[in-house]
Amino acid sequence: MKKIYAINGSPRKNKNTATLLDKVLEGAKKAAPDVLAERIDLYSLKYTGCRSCFACKRKDGASYGKCAVRDDLYDVLEKLRDADAVVFGSPIYYRTITGQLHAFYERFFFPYMQYKHGYPNLVQKKIPTACIYTMNVKEDEMLRDGYREYMGLFEIFLENYFQKPLILHSFNTYQFDDYGKYVCEVFSPEEKAAWRDVHFPEDCKKAFAIGEELMIKSK
Length: 219
Description:
Layout: E1 3-8, H1 16-31, E2 36-41, H2 73-80, E3 85-91, H3 99-109, E4 129-134, H4 139-144, H5 147-161, E5 166-170, H6 189-217
Parallel strand pairs: 1-2, 1-3, 3-4, 4-5
Helix pairs in contact: 1-6
């Protein structure tokens, strides 16, 4: 049975990022009805970033090549070692992924990297991956203000260890259910709602298609 995991780097479980990740999983199920598809909400877990214990690098160590830290992330990392595809989702805070997702990827990538000449890695299969980014800005602002340079660092590691990730940017996203409850002069609720009505359904379709493509690429 194939396995696809959606890593939710958002603190919210039913808003923009989570919705798009769920659409990816729906697309995966359409392409491969028997696939095991699971979303993992990082903010529900108790864990830290890399603790620099280097157990994953110890000669003849029991944890060589895998993270030895026994917190809530341990079982997640074990699951991902057997994954056939993984999609990562994050809202963009200060032009980059959330702190929770960053802490996750320290623990995810580092054990695979060997301190040998050329830095070979221990990845057993080059699985397909995808990144879903949700953000308040529009595309021209993202490009003008250098967002891609920050987000691209995560993608570089994904491509180095696995396959080049499929990318979806969801722009000008809705932050609040009721903008009237918050001090928020810089955004127009009417403009936000109009944008969402047109563009978010399109983003959901793109996310669904990514799920289908991930299953095709995993064969």
